[in-house]
Amino acid sequence: MMENIQATLNRDPAVQAAKPIKMKSRNVTVHYGAKQALNGISLDIPEHQVTALIGPSGCGKSTYLRCLNRMNDTIDAAKVAGEILLDGQDVYDPDIDVVELRARVGMVFQKPNPFPKSIYENVVYGPKIHGLAHSKQDLDEVVQTSLRKAGLWNEVKDRLDEPGTGLSGGQQQRLCIARAIAVSPEVILMDEPCSALDPIATATVEELIDELRENYTIVIVTHSMQQAARVSQLTAMFHLGDLAESGPTEKMFSNPDDKRTQDYITGRFG
Amino acid sequence: MSDATANGIADTAAARPPRRDIGIKKRYAAERRFKIYGIIAIAIGLAFLVMLMTSIISKGYTAFWQTEIKVPITFSEQVLGTAEQANQSQTKLLMANYPQLARDGLVQLLGIDPANKQAVNAANGLISSGTRVALRDIVMNDLSKIGTTEDVWLYASSELDSALKGQYDLDVPENRRPISDLQLQYIEKLEAEGAIEQRFNWGFFTYGASSRAETAGLGVAIIGSLYMMMIVLVLALPIGVAASIYLEEFAPKNKFTDLIEVNINNLAAVPSIVFGLLGLAVFINWMGLPRSAPLIGGLVLTLMTLPTIIIATRAALRAVPPSIRWAALGLGASKNQTVFHHVLPLAAPGILTGTIIGLAQALGETAPLLLIGMVAFVADYPATPMDPATALPVQIYMWANEAERAFVERTSGAIIVLLGFLAIMNLTAIFLRRRFERRW
What we know:
Strand content of chain A: 15-25%
Shape of chain A: globular
Distance between the termini of chain A: 18 Å
Number of helices of chain A: 11
Largest sheet of chain B: 3 strands, antiparallel
Helix content of chain B: 55-70%
Strand content of chain B: 5-15%
Radius of gyration of chain A: 18 Å
Structural class of chain B: mainly alpha
CATH superfamily of the largest domain in chain B: MetI-like
Largest sheet of chain A: 6 strands, mixed
Oligomer: heterodimer
Largest interface: A-B, 27 and 22 residues
Order of helices and strands of chain B: HHEHHHHHHEHHEHHHHHHHHHH
Helix content of chain A: 25-40%
CATH topology of the largest domain in chain B: MetI-like fold
Number of helices of chain B: 20
């Protein structure tokens, strides 16, 4: 495993270079009814980097991710407090429209969830509702560029009118990524995007994530520490609603400061 | 490791441990017992269904055939007046004694002496007195027929019809049956001449209410039921779907919406006659809308169907996987867009099925309609939903109260028609569900 990490890091010398902060959260707490799920998380997410959120089940990493584009709003019982800034602007500010926020901060879910419509319709839905493309020509172009970026174009270009649900699991997940990048978001949140995929599809998606980093800021929740090591430049370790530790992935996996991180990555619990 | 395996194989035959009794036989026995119970339950249900259907169909299928007699009718100028007179004023033509034409024709056909009153009366009893309308329509449509003679198929009286269909016991003494020996002789004569025939009873579907069985039909009831179904569909579907979408997707989950939900579920269990009382009090007494009108019936049935549609729609909405909602919301779709672009289309088959089942329920509903006066003798087609009409189940109820033998077959015949409509609606529901169901 260490060779893997080392290889990833060597491949990417930009890791150490400081990047501007895209999203900043300060003292974020979340309550589900009476139960507190997050206890004051403060984390910086740098631009054009992949930030991995790791930790054992129920530690709050998905909850935190869903705060970043306010998906927690859809859960009645969830109460979010604290500050989450996107380019210095509080996303929970009443002036910020949640629709606009989600157009800027896209999301890919754990289970591939394409709409039960054609591949074409899946990709153009976002641009259509946001009025980003109108003519057939524009829409065709969006479909092609998005599917190309998601590495799916060559596999589906001849069957764009077939249902998106008919693709294989890995293709479906890449379709969901294409759908998310079709609205040109700045940040893409991924909630365990590979947990429902087989190893080969996982490898394809991981490669894709690495390529997407050039244009987008990516936050990924993952159960797999190997995956965190392979795709991320920064890692944040969550434990029981607390942020145990965060820092460059290399350091986290070779020399963690926190005992809990050390125990988790060496497989002593989790 | 390999040694142990080799030994294991060698020793199996000799040293296989005795099988543990973990109750496998009992488990399978329980399973078989349960299967048998299920098969018995289904068999009992099917047996009752078959009994019911056999009873209804065996009693009712004859209602779709009606005996008719071919009678040479002379449209005599003595009775009708001349064509010139008719051109000037139709009063005489409207009031003319058409049954006399029919009687004269039949008397001539049977070769009876017109002076023999008893024989003439017996012959007259073989044709329906409803011939008045049929003959009048022939003349009114073509005045040139006056003065000519033409063979016309006339409805036989319900006594003749019932006798031919074997519904009377003809072995009892003459004075104890509605058809006399003389009439039976005439029938044989007519049969020999091929002037008597069982023909498909279109009148059963087109006539309105009548005190004579042979001219009593379901026409008004079918139109009334159609009007009501249209009103229910137009009102209950949009209201029900809108209410469900609001409750399921938008409403905050609190005590108040819980209360509404409980009440809607209870409303579905309210006896339908209570809705009839409500309709009587609100629509007729308070709002002053006309009685016996399909409009009121439709409104009452709408109230009755709403809970069914709301419950079915909410179930259909809840069955749409939340991941579809997240996908749309995650792309920045508003709640409204999420619901109308994704959730509603996916729930549509369920909603349609629920609606059609609600409609079918409303179609068969009788009790509330009795209370708002739809149990009426309506002979004319309702031109608008504001005109008096009856409904199919109410017509069945009314005919079931008639004593005459011919109404018994009509009651069962009407039940067959109603069941036919219900079957068509349910098949439509199944078809729509198959057609629009999507997999995800």
